[in-house]
Prior knowledge:
3-stranded antiparallel beta sheet
Amino acid sequence: MHWSRPSSERCTTLDPAAPNLDRASAAPDDRLLPPKEHLDPRARTMWYVSESIQCAIWVVIVASVAGVLLRFTDITSWWVLLAASVIIVFSIVQTAVSPAWKYRYWRYEIREDEVDLQHGFVVKTRQLVPMTRIQHVDTRRSPLQQRFGLSSVVFFTAAGSMEIPALSQEIAADVRNRIAELAKVHDDL
């Protein structure tokens, strides 16, 4: 089946050179563009340390399980070593790649009417949280974040909590205060 437009129907275009184009209506909506703000660059190093700790824990667990299997079962040793090697190599590759990807693809933007969050490489997540839905906003610092001088901003809605991780302490405080001001959340400190 062939679809065609009757010649009497007019086709509109976003070409700026086209006549009768209202350029104000052709301006892109801010929500179509990715958020502008990035996390603090120290986030990469913090995530490398965190991933390295997790990788070391996995190596110890896998080596322990492999040792128990080799000693107390009749499983052929090369199967155990192959499985252990695959898990260990995967953990090392994830440790090497994941922090850089997390940093590259994590963005946020605080707008007058919403908080825009975008993260993820394989599975991209985009969250638009209306300011009118935000009930409470905090800053948090894990021991590892404290070591790197970073903080996270956590804000709560009736649906749960969202987090902007790994901001400098000063920027985190500014972001927290801006969200609180725009959402009309009062700090009881």
